[in-house]
Write a structure and sequence with these properties.
The complex is a heterodimer of chains A (about 110) and B (about 190).
Chain A: H1 9-21, H2 27-38, H3 44-56, E1 60-68, E2 74-81, H4 83-100, H5 107-110
Antiparallel strand pairs in A: 1-2
Chain B: H1 5-11, H2 17-34, H3 36-57, H4 59-85, H5 94-118, H6 123-147, H7 153-164, H8 166-183
The chains are: A alpha+beta (about 110), B mainly alpha (about 190).
Chain lengths: ~110, ~190
């Protein structure tokens, strides 16, 4: 049985952004989503290498879309989260919840 | 419209052709807001990131390829030196410079192409790393010899020829990679 995949913080953010974007997740929209919601300005190079690494690990899968004129006739590469990616993300969230359980860290925020 | 084909060619040296197309498409889409300088800055940044990723993913494989490249470079290097040493009347003449340049540059071109043919996925990263390391080494040796006065003026030409060998090395690797893309060799796919 394969060992469970552990995610870094950057991978978690990217997976969450992809899940939020649904069918419209590709390079430009993922970067915009991370900037808008997480306040993270990600260099394109860092994001594309992360996407390649995550696809190699089986966390996401990609498909090529149709070429569009505003992109110089080039296709978009849409990405979706795989079942393995959802499981890994779910495990990471559960770990956070267990660690946060009983802490007063977020009390002011939720009050 | 800027010529983005060169950007796509550059990125396809380090990732699959489909990924290179999509990345350049993304950067083109965003460059409308930021301008051409932003576009080229991030094309170069992405190429460097992909190169670094190729090194980090399989460091031993890349190191083995680099060592293979060094071994393969020995024959043309000695051929270039022999071209001078075995024909004393040619010493430091234009003929010896041309013969040496030809041996070293043709050898570098052949080594670049051979590394990519040996490893379609990691060969380009190995060539780029070998080129960078070679430049630093030759430059450091040249400057050190010059500093201690051990470098005759006529030897400087040899160092310039050696420093310029990086161009045919990368050109050989890039052409081999382009030929593989044109032939659609599946091993180029990063996730296969």
């Amino acid at each position: 049985m394969a060992a469970p995949l552990n995610l870094g913080e950057f991978e978690q953010l990217i997976l969450l952004a992809i899940l939020r974007l649904g069918d419209d997740a590709y390079g430009v929209t993922i970067r915009a989503e991370l900037a808008d919601r997480a306040g993270r300005s990600i260099a394109p190079g860092a994001m594309y290498t992360a996407l390649e690494r995550m696809e190699a690990k089986g966390l996401i899968r990609s498909r090529m879309g149709d070429p569009t004129p505003q992109r110089g006739g080039r296709a978009k590469r849409y990405v979706t989260v795989t079942a393995a990616g959802r499981q890994a993300l779910s495990r990471a969230v559960q770990a956070y919840e267990r660690l946060l359980d009983g802490l007063e860290l977020l009390r002011d925020k939720h009050a | 419209m800027r010529d983005t084909t060169r950007a796509e060619l550059l990125l396809s040296l380090f990732t699959s052709p489909d990924c290179a197309t999509a990345i350049v498409g993304d950067l083109t889409e965003e460059a409308g807001k930021h301008g051409p300088n932003w576009f080229w800055l991030h094309v170069l940044g992405t190429a460097l990131a992909l190169w670094r990723r190729n090194l980090a993913d399989a460091p031993l494989r890349v190191l083995a390829l680099m060592l293979t490249g060094c071994v393969l470079l020995v024959a043309p290097t000695f051929a270039g030196v022999a071209a001078i040493a075995f024909f004393p009347p040619w010493n430091f003449s234009p003929v010896s410079s041309i013969v040496t340049s030809f041996c070293w540059w043709a050898g570098a071109f052949w080594v670049g192409a051979s590394l990519v043919n040996t490893s379609p996925r990691r060969g380009m990263a190995a060539c780029a790393t070998l080129a960078a390391a070679g430049e630093v080494l030759v430059f450091a040796v040249g400057v050190t010899l010059l500093w201690y006065g051990e470098l005759a003026p006529q030897d400087i030409l040899l160092f310039v020829v050696a420093l310029a060998a990086v161009v045919p090395l990368l050109a050989g690797a890039a052409l081999a990679r382009r030929r593989m893309i044109a032939w659609g060799i599946p091993a180029l796919e990063q996730h296969s």
